[in-house]
Amino acid sequence: MKIGIKKVTKLAVLTALCGIANSTILPASDVAAATTVKAPYSTAKKWTAKLAKAGYVFELPNAVKGALYHQSGKPYRQKTLKKIVKNQILFKVKRVNKIHNSVSVDLVSKNGKYKGNTIYINGILNHNSKIKELQPLIKAELRVMDARGDQRPTAELLKQVEQIATGLTGKNKQIALTSIKQLKEFIKYGTMAETPDLLIGSWPNDDLDN
Questions:
Q1: Smallest Cα–Cα separation from 104: which of 145, 54, 44, 60?
Q2: Segment holding 178, helix H or strand E
Q3: 100 has which bridge partners?
Q4: Which N-terminal residues, if any, form the signal peptide (predicted)?
Q5: Rounded to whole angstroms, how far apart are CA atoms 68 and 197?
Q6: For the segment 25-84, what is each residue's pLDDT rounded down to a tens digit?
Q7: CA distance 25 to 16
Q8: CB count, 10 Å around CB of 62?
Q9: In Å, what is the CA distance from 15 to each residue of 22, 32, 87, 98, 209?
Q10: Which of 39, 2, 35 is nearest to 17 (CA)?
Q11: Residue 24: partners with Cβ closer than 8 Å, 6 or more residues away
Q12: How confident is the model over 110-155, as pLDDT tens digits?
């Protein structure tokens, strides 16, 4: 199935890449409610292991209502959410849940003070994606993701990504090499679970040409 990333919404992309036909992505409130009332859900074990391995690198991108729910299903107060976002509190993914035709993630903060769940898409952002030196790499990787989604050739675009990585050093180069390895997995399988950790919160992207 050909997917035009630039022409569809982020939620539609998630539906297509998860291989779910004619499905609806639940809002965060419904995801929380589903987990609270023990609605049918399953743990995506390989996906969980992949994101957990990334460590405490995820943050909440915004403090909108429903950005994070307590394990009880009660939403965090907006005052608390604003504090979490302002202080760029880092979280680790403890579990990835497939609920109805949606995906949620269980999170725990590095200091252990905050625990809860949120929706996967738009719900978390990789903190490393803000590193200035990694911006060219990220933009190049997003072009590869876009091409894969459109079922266009990715070989030349991937070479550009690898070339950019050669100019990086230290921690940034390690982040880049890990991301490229995961990017190749995405090219091979094309599902949301193979999205490089570095691009979580940045992809799907409605402005890939910028």
A1: 44
A2: helix 170-189
A3: none
A4: 1-28
A5: 20
A6: 344 444 444 444 355 679 999 999 999 999 999 999 999 989 999 989 999 999 999 999
A7: 11
A8: 11
A9: 8, 19, 32, 12, 23
A10: 2
A11: 15, 100, 101, 102
A12: 999 999 999 988 899 999 999 999 999 999 999 999 999 999 999 9
Residues shown for the chain: 210
Residue 69 · residue 32 · CB < 8 Å:
yes
| C-alpha separations of 69 from 31, 46, 135 in Å | 9, 24, 31
Q: What is the pTM of this model?
A: 0.80
Q: Kindly tell me if the per-residue pLDDT of 13 is higher than 90.
A: no
In sequence order, what are the residues at sequence separation of 6 or more whose Cβ sits closer than 8 angstroms to the Cβ of residue 54?
A: 92, 93, 126, 197
Structure tokens at 190: 């094309």
Q: If residue 177 lies in a helix (H) or strand (E), which one and from where to where?
A: helix 170-189
User: Which amino acid makes up residue 83?
Assistant: K
Alpha-carbon distance of 71 to 36, in angstroms, equals: 8
Q: Do residues 8 and 205 touch, judged by C-beta distance below 8 A?
A: no
Location of structure tokens 């719900």 = 123
Average pLDDT of the residues of the chain: 84
pLDDT, tens digit, 9 for 90 and up, residues 69-82: 998 999 999 999 99
Bond from prior residue into 204 cis (ω within 30 degrees of 0): yes
- Ordered by start, the domain boundaries in the chain are 1-25+127-210, 29-120
* End-to-end CA separation in angstroms for the chain: 26
